[in-house]
Each structure stands twice: as structure tokens, then as C-alpha cells.
């Protein structure tokens, strides 16, 4: 999958002139006011600050404008205000002239500026030394003046654009000067209409002044001529690779971007290179839409959009991503939401722009958008595994070589397990040179990373290269270290999204609906994803080509394929294994928590359907904090352990590679029928592992229903504490009973009725309690919230413990119903944070 473009810089979100294009000066004018000495910053890194002459007592101001703020001057009476900007030349500004000088920016002229005979824009006719250029307007038309080292004019020409400059409108104006080619050219863009115009190429004779040490002056000449209006985002590069076409394209690409609009709900200026919701008095809006600048698209296959953002699970999110495409930066398609897995649904055209909706349910928090990437997944050279060959890709995802002479090509893959590739190649093969560690190999549409290369020379003198490669998702094991985090009654997509933050992978379809409250201490993305699958259930599917992770209740389909002897099955082995049979399963959660109070007093679950013999093991659920969810999880695990492991191992042929048998296709995870009269076998089961021989599809090995340990069960590789049958160190139950905690809550047992509590819908049951004689009671109702609350002022501590015992007999929750404890923390600075502890 080739990366076509990535938007991860401020200019991509705001439409500002790219900093990389302005190494000799970049004046954004984004400050709310100048510094104490009346200077405005230079963003080029050269610290060429612009001094405001006559800032105080005039109409000079930093106004909200096109790209954040802009500098405005001389609005009332230019001849009396006499405001202008000056960048002092220390002698270095023009010291290294290359083939091309580009200079320009945005301006918002007034009637005074477009109506005067002579209106200076930017000149170098001030200070010591001779000038090099002078940009101005003459009766509203752009004028360019160039000078030689003696100060004589070598070019003085005005140009007539295809449109007229008007009062109060924004225009992009730039000039491309080529000292060696002796040419100059103007570019002018009208933001209101989206029209861009290029002048003819102007020529001059003589030598441009390469020794200019004059200052840069905006808006003034000779203390007699003035500019009135606004300036924004001006730039200078004295050794540029840009052309007039590049600058015209920049203008058109920038028109859509809104990340610097200070009146909008998104903010791409406060923090460099990221986008957030725009806060007002520390309160964020519930949502906001970012529209980016346009960029090259260039997708030739199946495009995919990937958005990277930091967010708080369950509170902030990137709720919608849309695209529009164009061939001319003028006519655009309608906005189209990307697919569930980031698929580009807009038609493939030359240019693309994005509209991204940032959302929050907590106005004290905002998602932080860091990048938008567009990938191209070209049509694979092969469409089926049978007879396919390994394809070596370069770093951009383009085809480097097809290994036609590869042999013993085996792809081994399991449901929720390994995905690996091995093949051999003659060492003397001319394409051996393309094989290198960490390079990408494509098999049909799947991608693998080469990990091991072994070169052998046999006794016969034959030299062979053996390659071992791992699926692209294995790299998630090397992701940035993850902090411990607790998920509260969240569906699987929330921890999956957390796992993939900071990677170039995205969450795809998740239709597993279980909710879990648990603490995740895994340190890398892959370990977290494996833990999520163990805790929530389902099939974890890695789309390596598109870098998408899915969690599906069932990943395959009922293929209708029949495997039988002498048709497509060469051999079959059935194994019935009870070595891991468990009928009673104890479970212990965080701090020794059990589910006995909601399970008839039993700390275990039991299933004696297969045998009445009690075979005991312990399930470590130490990352669970909710007994209801732990009970559900224990029952799910016992269903796996309480019956024999029955496995079928087939040597089978993939008939779908043969003409006329294309319908006999099957895939990992599919349900198939296996029939053999000699073994009295007729069973419908599932493909859970395969060793596919690409060169010899008739020698493919399948494992059905349950993976045999001796045939490569990979569970040891993906160990998770939540799925390990082992004993756990527990606090002794008597020690727990003897522990008397300090309670900040007053009247927590309802001994004094409803005293100290704010009540909405609760009553007191004076006859039934647990640690006392009374308790609080509530009868729920659909679409109704009932609460019991109390405010406490505890001492400052690192952590607090909340505990409650509830009776939940005959409780039935609605679709969005919740039962739990909501805690609102108020910090010393006055900010608040709310968390919900789900109890059921």
C-alpha cells in the first residue's frame, strides 16, 4: 500500500504559505499584538522580525482575517498615520541568490490603495545600498521594478490582470524573478472568486543587483507614498525551486482550508501542526468541521484514508471523515464520507481535499487531530493464492520484482493467531538481489515483512535462499509504549482505537457488542489488541494491505464447500483431546474480587454436560473490576474448556484454481462440510488454520474446528493474563473482612434515612441491608434517570477507592440503560472531570 500524501503540517490545515517554501522570511502576522518593541515575528527561523513604524495612536491593528490574524494599517488617513513595516537587512538577506527569487503574500487593499497612481507594496529602496526589486500598484495594476548594482532600473513594467482589484477583498500576489534567465512574472489570485491569473513572462537586460543590503519595506516609499489595507502571510525565498505554476497551484489549493478561521469551531493555529476544537473560556464546542487545503490525489487502485488523532475513549472522537476530488481545483465533487474501513468513495481525480468532524461529549476535552494520510492500494498482480508468486515492493509500495522462480511457497495463517510466509529461491536467481531484511513482500493483496534470510549450499553444490516473513501487523508489537488505562463499560472499538493511536493502522468494522470494564496494562499495540479479543471475544482480523484491524463475531461465511475423499481431500485425521478439559472454573478479579454475591454464593462457574467429574482450574481476571462482566467472561471461557477439543486435519486441494471449479472457493474462517464414510464422519466445521502451498495447491493442509497444539497452536505467543488458566495470589478472604476502610461518605448504609444525600427517585428500605439493617432502594423506569448523590471534600491523595454492594434481582436494562456510580472530581484550579463506574 503506497502512501500518496500526508497532511500533517499547519499549512495543510490552514492554507497558509508552506514554511518549507520560505526559508529567507515568513511573516505570518498571527500575533494578537506586537512584542514590547513593536516587532512582529518571522516564522522562517531566520529571526528577521518586522518592525511596525507608528503602531501606537494609529489604526494599525492585528485583525481577524484570512489566515488567523493579519496586520492592518493606514485605514483613516495614510498621509498622517504613516504606518509601515520594516525588516532590517543585516547584509545576509540577498547574499546567496540562486536561479529563482520568489516573493509575495496576501493583501487586502482599500479604495485608497487601488485608486492611487502609485501605491507601494514591498520595496528595497530604503536604507543603505542599492535596491533589488520594488513591488507596487500603479492605478490598481501590479508593477514590477528591478535594479542593477548601481541603482539603475533594468525593468519597469506594469501588467493588466484579467480582473480588477477592489476595496476590502483578499488577493494573493507573488512575483517570480530569475536573475540568470533575466525574466520576471506576476501571479495574482482573487480569493473571493477563486480566479488565478499569471502575467506573461517579462524579460530584462543587465545584471540584477546581487549585492543588495537594503531593508525590506511594506507599504511606504520615500515617506511620500503609502499603502492602506491589510497584509498577511508574506514570504521570501532567494534560492527557490518554485515556478509560477507552483504558486498558482498553491493559491487554488489553499482556498478551501479553514483551520485558521478564528470565528470557526476548529483551531489549527494554537498548537503547531495539530487541529483541535476551538475553546471559548476553556469550553469546547460539541463538534467542529475542519476543511483542509487541497493536495495531489494520484490514486490508481483502491484508495484509503487514514486519520490519526489523540482522544479520550468514550468522550472525544473523529466522528466523520469526508472527501471531495477535482481535476482542476475549481470544480469539485460532492462531499462523500469514507467507507467503514477508510475506503475512498470519491472518484479518483487529480486533487483531493478533506472535511473532518471533531466531536466531544465532554466540553472540557477535545480530540487532537495530527495527520490525514491517503494510501493507494494498486490492483494486485494475482487474484488467487493458487499459483501466485511473491512480489517484492519498494518503500513506496511499488512493485520491484516478481519472484517467478520461487518455490515451496507456504502461507501459514490462523484465526486469532499467526500469519507467516516462507519460500525458497535459487541463490543464483537474478532477482535474489531484491531480497533484503525488512523489505515488503506481497502475496496477492496481503503484505509481509522479511525477517529472516538463510543462504544454504547443499552437498550437491546447489545454493538456495530461504526466506521467512511475518505479516505486516506483527510490527504493531514494536509500537510506542502504552500507558496503563482503565476502560469503563466500553465496547471493543474503544480499547482497539487506544491501541492503534500513534500507529499507521486504523480500527475497521467491530460488530462484537460486549461491554467490558477492565484495566489494560499491556505495553504495545499488538498485545492490547490480543487482550481485547480475549476479553471481548470474536475474531481479530488484520487487513495488512490496508492497515485496518477488525473484530468480528464470525469472520468467515458458510462457503458450501464439501471436502470428501478422492474429490478434494487426500487424507484426514480426527483427534479428540480431553487433556485440557475443565468443568469447574474459579475466577478472581482485581484485588481478589469474586462474583459469588451474584452467582448463588459460588466463586466459580460449572459445566458438567460432558462429564460429571469435577476438574478445577482458576481463571486470572485481575484486570476486571466489574463482577457481572467477569461472570459473563468466565462463562464464555468455560464454554471453551468444558468439552473435548475436537480437531480435524486435512490434506486438501484448492479446486477453485481449476477452470470450471471456481465456485469451490473457501477461506480461513469459513464453515465447510467434511464427509468420509470409512470414518463414519459427516460434520460441518470451521477452517481455523491453514498451511497453503501456493505452488502446489493440492498439498494444502487445513485444520478445522480447533487447532491442535502439536500442529502449531500459537496461543503461547499471544499470552494474555485475562486468558491464562493459572492460580493467582489473592488477599486472604478473612484479611479482607478484617480490613476497616475509612469512609468519606456520611450515612452510607441508610441508617439515618436519606440524611446527607441529595435524592431523586430513591427510597429507604429499613428492613433489608447487608452491613446494616437498612439500604437505599430504587425502582428503575425506562427513559428515566434516578440518582442519589453526596458531595465530599477528601484529603489530597494519589488514588481513591469506591465500593458498593447492590442487589440486582429481576433487573432489565434498556438499550442505553446504565447502573453505576458517577464521580465528578473538582480540582484545585476549578476544573472538573466526570467518570462513570459501571456496576452492571
Instruction: Estimate percent helicity.
Output: under 10%
Number of helices: 8
Largest sheet: 13 strands, mixed
Count of beta strands? 56
Protein name: Phage tail protein
Domain Prophage endopeptidase tail N-terminal: 390-471
InterPro entries: Phage_tail_spike_N (IPR007119), Prophage_tail_N (IPR044051), Tail_dom (IPR010572)
Domain Tail spike: 473-716
Walkthrough of the structure:
With 840 residues, this protein is mainly beta. 8% of the residues lie in helices and 38% in strands. It contains eight helices and 56 strands. The longest helix has 15 residues, at 627-641. The radius of gyration is 35 Å and the shape is flat. The protein starts with a strand and ends with a strand.
List keywords for this structure.
840 residues, mainly beta, Phage_tail_spike_N, Tail_dom, Phage tail protein, Prophage_tail_N, 13-stranded mixed β-sheet
Short description:
The chain is mainly beta and 840 residues long. Helices cover 8% and strands 38% of the residues.
Walk me through the topology.
Elements: E1 2-7, H1 10-14, E2 25-27, E3 39-40, E4 50-53, E5 61-65, E6 68-73, H2 78-81, E7 84-87, E8 101-109, H3 111-115, E9 118-123, E10 133-138, E11 141-147, E12 153-158, E13 171-178, E14 183-190, E15 195-198, E16 202-203, E17 216-218, E18 220-221, E19 225-226, E20 229-237, H4 244-254, E21 266-267, E22 276-277, E23 287-291, E24 295-296, E25 302-310, E26 316-326, E27 336-337, E28 351-360, E29 368-377, E30 391-393, E31 399-402, E32 407-414, E33 419-426, E34 440-443, E35 446-457, E36 463-471, E37 485-491, H5 493-500, E38 506-510, E39 515-520, H6 525-536, E40 539-543, E41 548-552, E42 558-564, E43 569-577, E44 584-588, E45 604-606, E46 616-620, H7 627-641, E47 645-652, E48 671-676, E49 681-693, E50 700-704, H8 733-738, E51 758-760, E52 762-765, E53 775-778, E54 787-789, E55 820-826, E56 832-838
Parallel strand pairs: 38-41, 42-48, 44-46
Antiparallel strand pairs: 1-29, 2-20, 3-4, 4-7, 5-6, 6-20, 7-17, 8-13, 8-20, 9-10, 9-17, 10-11, 11-12, 13-14, 14-15, 14-16, 18-19, 21-22, 23-28, 24-28, 25-29, 26-27, 26-28, 30-31, 30-34, 32-33, 32-49, 33-36, 34-35, 35-36, 37-39, 40-41, 43-47, 44-45, 47-50, 48-49, 49-50, 51-54, 52-53, 55-56
Helix pairs in contact: 5-6
Pfam families: Prophage_tail (PF06605), Prophage_tailD1 (PF18994)
Organism: Faecalicatena faecalis
Protein name: Phage tail protein
Amino acid at each position: 500500500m503506497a502512501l500518496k500524501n500526508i497532511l500533517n503540517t499547519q499549512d495543510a490545515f490552514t492554507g497558509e504559505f508552506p514554511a518549507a517554501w520560505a526559508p529567507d522570511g515568513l511573516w505570518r502576522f498571527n500575533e494578537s499584538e506586537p512584542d514590547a518593541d513593536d516587532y512582529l515575528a518571522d516564522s522562517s527561523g531566520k529571526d528577521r522580525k518586522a518592525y511596525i513604524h507608528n503602531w501606537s495612536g494609529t489604526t494599525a491593528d492585528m485583525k481577524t482575517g484570512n489566515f488567523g490574524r493579519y496586520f492592518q494599517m493606514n485605514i483613516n488617513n495614510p498621509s498622517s498615520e504613516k504606518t509601515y513595516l520594516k525588516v532590517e537587512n543585516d547584509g545576509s538577506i540577498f547574499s546567496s541568490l540562486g536561479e529563482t527569487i520568489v516573493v509575495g503574500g496576501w493583501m487586502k487593499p482599500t479604495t485608497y490603495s487601488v485608486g492611487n497612481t502609485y501605491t507601494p507594496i514591498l520595496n528595497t529602496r530604503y536604507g543603505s545600498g542599492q535596491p533589488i526589486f520594488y513591488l507596487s500598484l500603479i492605478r490598481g495594476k501590479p508593477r514590477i521594478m528591478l535594479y542593477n548594482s548601481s541603482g539603475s532600473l533594468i525593468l519597469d513594467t506594469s501588467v493588466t490582470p484579467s480582473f480588477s482589484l477592489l476595496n476590502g477583498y483578499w488577493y494573493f500576489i507573488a512575483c517570480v524573478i530569475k536573475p540568470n534567465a533575466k525574466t520576471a512574472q506576476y501571479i495574482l489570485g482573487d480569493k473571493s472568486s477563486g480566479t488565478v491569473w499569471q502575467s506573461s513572462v517579462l524579460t530584462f537586460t543587465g545584471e540584477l543587483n546581487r549585492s543588495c543590503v537594503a531593508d525590506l519595506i511594506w507599504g511606504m516609499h520615500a515617506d511620500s507614498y503609502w499603502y492602506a489595507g491589510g497584509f498577511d502571510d508574506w514570504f521570501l525565498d532567494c534560492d527557490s525551486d518554485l515556478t509560477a505554476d507552483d504558486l498558482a497551484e498553491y493559491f487554488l489549493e489553499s482556498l478551501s482550508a479553514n483551520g485558521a478561521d478564528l470565528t470557526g469551531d476548529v483551531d489549527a493555529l494554537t498548537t503547531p501542526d495539530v487541529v483541535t476544537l476551538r475553546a471559548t473560556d476553556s469550553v469546547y464546542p460539541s463538534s467542529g468541521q475542519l476543511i483542509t487545503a487541497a493536495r495531489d490525489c494520484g490514486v490508481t487502485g483502491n484508495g484509503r484514508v487514514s486519520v490519526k488523532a489523540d482522544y479520550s475513549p468514550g468522550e472525544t472522537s473523529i466522528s466523520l471523515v469526508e472527501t471531495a476530488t477535482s481535476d482542476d481545483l475549481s470544480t469539485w465533487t460532492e462531499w462523500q464520507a469514507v467507507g467503514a474501513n477508510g475506503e475512498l468513495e470519491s472518484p479518483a481525480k487529480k486533487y483531493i481535499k478533506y472535511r473532518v468532524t471533531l466531536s466531544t461529549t465532554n466540553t472540557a476535552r477535545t480530540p487532537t487531530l495530527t495527520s490525514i494520510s491517503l494510501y493507494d492500494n494498486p490492483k494486485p498482480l494475482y487474484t488467487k493464492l493458487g499459483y501466485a508468486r511473491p512480489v517484492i515492493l519498494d518503500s513506496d509500495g511499488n512493485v520491484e520484482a516478481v519472484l517467478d522462480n520461487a518455490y515451496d511457497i507456504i502461507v501459514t495463517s490462523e484465526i486469532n493467531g499467526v500469519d507467516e510466509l516462507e519460500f525458497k529461491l535459487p541463490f543464483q536467481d537474478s532477482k535474489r538481489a531484491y531480497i533484503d531484511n525488512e523489505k515488503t513482500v506481497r502475496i496477492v493483496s496481503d503484505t509481509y515483512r522479511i525477517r529472516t534470510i538463510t543462504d544454504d549450499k547443499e552437498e550437491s553444490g546447489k545454493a538456495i535462499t530461504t526466506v521467512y516473513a511475518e505479516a505486516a501487523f506483527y510490527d504493531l508489537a514494536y509500537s510506542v509504549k502504552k500507558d496503563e488505562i482503565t476502560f469503563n463499560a466500553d465496547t471493543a472499538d474503544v480499547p482497539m482505537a487506544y491501541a492503534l493511536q500513534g500507529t499507521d493502522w486504523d480500527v475497521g468494522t467491530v460488530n462484537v457488542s460486549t461491554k467490558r470494564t477492565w484495566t489494560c496494562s499491556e505495553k504495545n499495540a499488538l498485545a492490547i489488541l490480543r487482550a481485547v479479543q480475549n476479553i471481548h471475544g470474536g475474531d481479530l482480523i488484520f487487513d495488512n494491505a490496508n492497515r485496518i484491524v477488525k473484530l468480528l463475531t464470525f469472520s468467515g461465511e458458510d462457503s458450501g464447500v464439501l471436502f470428501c475423499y478422492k474429490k478434494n481431500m487426500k487424507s484426514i485425521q480426527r483427534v479428540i483431546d480431553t487433556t485440557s478439559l475443565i468443568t469447574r472454573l474459579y475466577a478472581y478479579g482485581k484485588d481478589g474480587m469474586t462474583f459469588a454475591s451474584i452467582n448463588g454464593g459460588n466463586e466459580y462457574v460449572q459445566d458438567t454436560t460432558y462429564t460429571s467429574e469435577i476438574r478445577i482450574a482458576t481463571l486470572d481476571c485481575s484486570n476486571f473490576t466489574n463482577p457481572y462482566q467477569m461472570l459473563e467472561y468466565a462463562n464464555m471461557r468455560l464454554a471453551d474448556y468444558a468439552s473435548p477439543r475436537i480437531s480435524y486435519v486435512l490434506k486438501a486441494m484448492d479446486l477453485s484454481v481449476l477452470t470450471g471449479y471456481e465456485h469451490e472457493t473457501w477461506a480461513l474462517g469459513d464453515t465447510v462440510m467434511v464427509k468420509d464414510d470409512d470414518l463414519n464422519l459427516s460434520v460441518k466445521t470451521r477452517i481455523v488454520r491453514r498451511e497453503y502451498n501456493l505452488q502446489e495447491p493440492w498439498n494444502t493442509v487445513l485444520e478445522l474446528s480447533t487447532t491442535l497444539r502439536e500442529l502449531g497452536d500459537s496461543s503461547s505467543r499471544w499470552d494474555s493474563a485475562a486468558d491464562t488458566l493459572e492460580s493467582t495470589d489473592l488477599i486472604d478472604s478473612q484479611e479482607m473482612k478484617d480490613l476497616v476502610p475509612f469512609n468519606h461518605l456520611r450515612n452510607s448504609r441508610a441508617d439515618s434515612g436519606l440524611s446527607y444525600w441529595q435524592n431523586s427517585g430513591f427510597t429507604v428500605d429499613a428492613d433489608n441491608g447487608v452491613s446494616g439493617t437498612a439500604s437505599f432502594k430504587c425502582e428503575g423506569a425506562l427513559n428515566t434517570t434516578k440518582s442519589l448523590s453526596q458531595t465530599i471534600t477528601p484529603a489530597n491523595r494519589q488514588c481513591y477507592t469506591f465500593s458498593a454492594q447492590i442487589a440486582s434481582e429481576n433487573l432489565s436494562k434498556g438499550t442505553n440503560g446504565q447502573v453505576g456510580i458517577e464521580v465528578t472530581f473538582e480540582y484545585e484550579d476549578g476544573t472538573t472531570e466526570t467518570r462513570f463506574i459501571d456496576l452492571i
